[in-house]
Write a structure and sequence with these properties.
This protein is an alpha+beta fold. The chain has one domain. The protein is 36% helix and 27% strand. The chain contains 7 helices and 13 strands. The strands form 5 sheets. A 5-stranded mixed sheet has the order 11-6-1-13-12. It is globular. The model has no long low-confidence stretch (mean pLDDT 93).
Length: 244
């Protein structure tokens, strides 16, 4: 059994960091794989660092890339995803990765009321989205999570407002709210955007059983944690994975 604890939020890099920390895969090996995945859109460098946050050892995923031409067509981004899967040694037909991306696209279509042929991606049309989706797809196979029951506590989404390409919106952001439709979530401990669209779609793909409330059960061992890149009230969000 695996239990994901995203009560402080979830972004793609937090989920990826927690899975890497739980997998035992050498960090240098993962850096090379993830960098090659993002580089299908232009030179991308991924660095993994072990940090301590509030007494918990966590993994930080730092993705740097050359800025491209700006917003990218959804269909072109899908082609990049297939190339990124191939660069990571995965099948271009990888179901988990393709469905994770398609959930983002469907949410953006609904938000902007635009058909796929004309849809452009803003915040999710960058190499770090490829790194997150492909990296999690790779580790899902590595940890043999397919067919294994994965549970999750309700993710914290935050509160207040978030600034995105089309203006200021209440948290959770419109695409995140659509992806999480019908699933449990809470405000979480801090103000700001704690759950991102990429984090939401990856959670939705990973989790088989959603707990409606509660704490991590006793008897489970902390396998790994991922830390967010932003600070909230002087603290960085932690996403933890337990097993037992």
């Amino acid at each position: 059994m695996f239990l994901i604890d995203p009560r402080e939020g979830a972004s793609g890099d937090m989920i990826l960091g927690a899975l890497i920390a739980s997998s035992g895969v050498p960090l240098r090996e993962m850096e090379e794989l993830l960098s090659s995945s993002g580089s299908v859109m232009g030179e991308t460098v991924v660095r993994l660092r072990r940090v301590e946050e509030r007494g918990v050892e966590a993994l930080e995923v730092d993705v740097r890339w050359e800025e491209g031409e700006g917003d990218i067509e959804a269909l072109k981004m899908k082609a990049h995803l297939l190339d990124a899967l191939q660069a990571a040694g995965l099948s271009r037909e990888n179901r988990f990765a393709r469905e994770a991306f398609e959930r983002i696209v469907r949410a953006e279509e609904e938000v902007h009321n635009e058909p796929l042929a004309y849809l452009k991606l803003h915040e999710t049309g960058t190499p770090d989205t490829l790194v997150d989706i492909v990296g999690v797809a790779f580790l899902r196979e590595k940890l043999e999570l397919e067919g294994e029951w994965v549970e999750a506590l309700p993710p914290g989404v935050g509160r207040g407002a978030v600034v995105i390409a089309h203006g200021v919106y209440p948290v959770p952001a419109p695409a995140t709210r659509i992806i999480m439709r019908g699933l449990p979530y809470t405000e979480g401990p801090w103000e700001g955007e704690l759950l991102t669209p990429t984090g939401a779609t990856l959670l939705k793909g990973l989790v088989d059983i959603w707990r409606r409330e509660g704490e991590a059960p006793e008897g489970l061992k902390l396998l790994g944690a991922g830390v967010g890149s932003r600070s909230f009230a002087g603290r960085r969000s932690l996403l933890k994975i337990y097993g037992g």
